[in-house]
Structure prediction request, 327 residues.
Amino acid sequence: MKKLMNNSTKIVSQFLDGLVAAHGNLVERLDGTEVIVRKEMIPNKVGLISGGGVGHEPAHAGYVGAGMLDAAIAGEVFTSPGADQFLAAIQAADQGSGVLLIIKNYNGDVMNAEMAMEMAEAEGIERAMVVVNDDIAVDDVENRRGIAGTVLVHKVAGAKAEQSASLQEVKDVAERAISNLRSMSVALQACTLPSASKPSFSLSETQMEVGIGIHGEQMSREDVLPSYEIAQLLVSHLEKEIDLTKPLYVLVNGMGSTPLLEQYVFANDTLAILKKKDVHVEKTLVGDYMTSLDMAGISLTMLAIDDELLSLLQANATTIQWTEVSQ
Prediction:
């Protein structure tokens, strides 16, 4: 499989260097680490960090900046960063009011983040953690994975932190977002790791994978459907757990190689279905927010919002991927 790279063993470091070379006005790299930090830290603000293995770009480094994250940690492809990398991010993000870790629900990420929190405690750093588990393809709530909805948690928590809120207040609003957040994905084609010569699994032209995870975790092989019917399928699952009487933020997320042409077809289908159900959609986001390398597919996220969550989502943010200018 052809890839635009120099060496698969150096791709993470070269990616981070490229990010800084292109966006040095917003971010920088901590020396000797795989950590991207906000260029200008704010004293006495709660610090926010997130991270995980690369391959999900623009997550998470693309969300470092004013109004969102203060630091993002990059592990090897689809591999959790080590506890030492999480600790370096905590230390950098700590500006005197504590640090909140926003972690996707994967064993390695959670374990290494918890180890780093213990080390930070020994240094006297106040810290807390929330775990995002928005993927409803997994029935067991405790084992649900964190996927694209994590980005909305970055936005809400980041905006709250910018208001000089306490660590507990930032954690509380992040947890409220998580409790009202659900996502589900479909893949039409598997991704290929930089070190691999073929996709991680194979789908025929008549098949799709429903409930796919962002690392290629397979759930249910089904016959491929037109966009409208895929939208119906995902909405039918999500509406079982989302309060559709509340306004929604809807995120249509490309999985890596799904053209915007197709993403907007799917978005149009989804919004038409929700309109028929008299659901008020406050805003729809469309694009690649959390990918799976070159996977072809889509994920659909719904966040049921209240007045405060809406205000935080609309608050100013300046990052590589997400810029928001409040009205």
